[in-house]
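User: Is it possible to get a 3D structure for a protein together with its bound compound? The compound here is tryptophan. I've pasted both below.
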Amino acid sequence: MAARGGFSNKLGFIAAAAGSAVGLGNIWQFPYVTGQNGGAAFLLVYIGWIFLIGLPVMVGEIAVGRNAQSNPYGAYKKLGGKSWAYVGLFGIICGVMILSFYNVVAGWAFGYFLELSFGNLLNEQDYSGFFSAYVADFRDNLFFSIAFMVITAYIVYRGVQKGIEGTSKVLMPTLFLILIFIIIYGLTLPNAMDGVSFYLLPDFSLINGRTIYTALGQAFFSLSLGMGALITYGSYISRNDNIVNSAILVTIADTAVAFLAGLMIFPLVFSQGQSPAEGPGLVFVALLGVFQTMGPLIGKIVGGGFFLLLCFAALTSTISLLEVPVAFLVDEKKWSRKKAVSAMALLIFLIGLPSMLGFGAVGAFTEFVSYEGGVKSFMDLVQDLFFVISLPLGGFLLSVFISTKWKTAGLSEEISHGNPSYKGSFLEKFFNLMIVYVCPVVLGAMFLLTVLQKFFGVELI
Ligand code: TRP
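Assistant: Yes, that's possible. Here is the predicted structure of the complex:
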């Protein structure tokens, strides 16, 4: 244990796990996906999935990690044998691939922060054109994504307690304060209340198969589930900690930040009469126009604050993604942390290059393959293979693993350390029911639907 490192206490784990969960998924993706899928109605479905599917899978991952005291590969191997170990290994590969493109987007956020706070970004005329040119400019991207990866690597190199925990404990509260500050400012703007009603008054006629499906994918990604990030973090906590309490707090923190990100963004967007259904450009295009109207000083403060927040959120997630393959190399191959971090950061950066160059810089990566009725970039493909398809698959396999191999008795036994009243409680029945029946069915169906739809042209929803 001492050699692997560990969190100093329960709070350290909660900060780090919430840091992993709170990321671009909450602040960049959640608001635009909500905007495209009808606002409040989507939010309700999302919250339902978070507690029905997300929380049980999270508890399962943490329990597996703590019991095995190992990275996902080692954990599955220890509790399930050689063939299950491949499931863990696949999760680690997904982490590597997710980080390869996640770091590119984090680099954009970092670049926007610097350009806005210290450059001339607020004087631009056409933010949509600026964004397209920005992501296609390979020099800027190279610089910012290297910078982001180096910072991530340095924190992971410093270790679980000093690096990951220490950083999360500072960044998470700061992020929260910036968020609250921008929300309050946004609510004072004209027409802000239109944004609030769009966001908070549900129109249930907007709920359909697509909304339900999209909300589940979003919930899963946002909670960092399905590839073993929480198995890894779970392996760093003490037997005396209450896993269920910690998981509930992490879930609430993640959901609260996603919710507040919407409450920050929609009033800003509506105050300028922009469309909430703008898509991925919502943050990088629509919001810029809003910051511009605030005037140079306030624009720099609020806009700079916003992109700083985005960077902090991304950073606590990139460190969790990097920690997974690093833990694997340290545990299984006995590499030093320094060697594991340097090798992995470099490898992941290289794998990310085609993603980075696939926004116009290099034609072959921009129009890389074609499926699902359209031309896709390299990054689209990596996203589809390693996150859209694989995270539900990973969650499905985890629940099947717990139900058939480790058994719910193993799960209950592990959770009851640090939580003596767990056995026989309502929560135990709820988690077992979800893990054994509901999660495999729902996540298995989601996996199949996605594969059929993306690669076999079947339109089921
Ligand atoms: N949850 C993060 C977000 O919302 C992304 C993330 C970090 C992640 N670690 C993960 C996603 C592990 C899946 C698995 O941005």
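Strands lie at 369-371, 374-376. Residues 20-21, 23-26, 98, 221-222, 224, 227, 229, 317, 320-321, 391 surround tryptophan (CB under 6 Å).
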